[in-house]
Design goal:
Elements lengths: L14 H8 L6 E4 L6 H10 L4 E6 L2 H11 L3 H8 L3 E5 L5 H8 L4 E7 L4 H5 L25 H7 L2 H12 L4 H14 L5 H11 L2 H6 L6 H11 L2 H14 L1 E11 L2 H16 L18 E3 L9 H6 L7 E7 L1
Parallel strand pairs: 1-2, 1-4, 2-3, 4-5
Antiparallel strand pairs: 5-7, 6-7
The protein binds S-adenosylmethionine.
S-adenosylmethionine binds next to helix 2 and strand 2.
Length: 325
């Protein structure tokens, strides 16, 4: 999870844009819902100390353990932990309200979620997140949950697998890949990531495969990861709670990495900013809904060419920001 020298391999994306968007002030109380390597948390702390506090959540216990190991060699974080300016929480961000209740915090000034997985998680083979590393077909973010990627590919029906690949991965060859998975598992159950990657590679039409900019297994692996960890469901729950627990004038910033995630955030923000949800023909409003947020990013903020060059993983990042009304 961490390199031998204790460094994270994860480079935080859209760091400056996120910090500016969160409009941080000294003494602010902030939630970083996705601690990861701690890059965004560090930047936030720099702008809210002295007096401020970050509640940093991660659902992956290994990510938190790795962070704690690194802290031993990092004076800045060590001091922040010692002074209770940084609180580490192992939980899913969909339990945000419970997390804040446990900390005795009613409302916060800013909330960040930098979705998905860190380079540390992807580059370690033993979790099964990456098709370029051999590993078990696990993909669970939290080892206490039950469903694994192996269970999906070895036991789910053709229709169910196809629907996961299409719905969660936008995979245009979902039918072909799902059929190839069913045929392959008839001979031998899948146990490793490379077995699955090979079947996907062979299933892809050759001409299309040669024209692709990404590896043909990219979207299938992404789809399985999303399904295993119920990412869309957790994101929706998190967004609702985040808006409730923001102070008036407080900011929420969400960084997404694929179209499905971005769609959820965009539509959620739009609905919360709209207020009235009465059908268009109604002469007067009957729902009484008031707008809860103001959207600050009509279009999402994306990385500059320089950032993408320096950190190719940032290429699909999209940042959306809103302010509580
Ligand atoms: C892209 S990384 C965050 C990187 C971090 N901003 C940094 O600068 O190092 C996403 C992190 O969120 C965590 N994560 C993903 N889904 C989560 C969820 N539903 N609840 C809590 N943490 C989650 C992952 O374990 C991972 O460590």
């Amino acid at each position: 999870m961490v390199e031998k020298n204790g460094m994270t391999k994860h480079i935080p994306v859209l760091l400056e844009e996120t910090r500016e968007g969160l409009y941080l002030k000294k003494g602010a109380i902030v939630v970083d819902a996705t601690l990861g390597g701690g890059g965004h948390t560090r930047e936030i702390l720099k702008h809210i100390l002295p007096g401020g506090k970050v509640i940093a959540i991660d659902a992956d216990l290994s990510a938190l353990d790795a962070f704690r190991v690194r802290v031993a060699e990092d004076d800045f974080f060590r001091q922040a932990l010692k002074k209770n300016s940084l609180i580490l929480v192992h939980d899913n961000y969909s339990s945000l309200e419970e997390v804040l209740d446990r900390e005795g915090i009613e409302t916060v000034d800013a909330i960040l979620a930098d979705l998905g997985f860190s380079s540390d998680q992807i580059e370690t083979g033993d979790r099964g997140f990456s098709f370029s590393q051999s590993g078990p077909l696990d993909m669970r973010l939290n080892q206490e949950t039950e469903l694994t990627a192996g269970e999906i590919v070895n036991t789910f029906s053709l229709e169910k697998i196809e629907s996961i690949l299409r719905g969660c991965g936008d995979e245009s060859e979902s039918r072909r890949i799902a059929s190839a998975i069913i045929v392959a598992r008839g001979e031998k159950s899948f146990t490793t990531t490379d077995e699955l990657r090979d079947v996907i590679e062979k299933a892809y039409p050759r001409g299309k495969r040669q024209r692709m900019k990404i590896h043909p297994a990219t979207q299938t692996f992404q789809a399985l990861r999303i399904a295993v960890n119920q990412e869309s469901e957790h994101l929706e729950k998190f967004l609702k709670q985040a808006i409730e627990r923001l102070k008036v004038g407080g900011r929420i910033a969400v960084i997404t990495f694929h179209s499905g995630e971005d769609r959820i955030v965009k539509q959620f923000f739009k609905k919360q900013a709209m207020g009235c949800v009465c059908p268009p023909g109604f002469p007067v409003c009957r729902c009484g809904n008031e707008p809860k947020i103001r959207i600050l990013t009509k279009k999402p903020i994306i990385p500059t060419d320089k950032e993408v060059k320096d950190n190719p993983r940032s290429r699909s990042a999209k940042l959306r920001i809103a302010e509580k009304l």
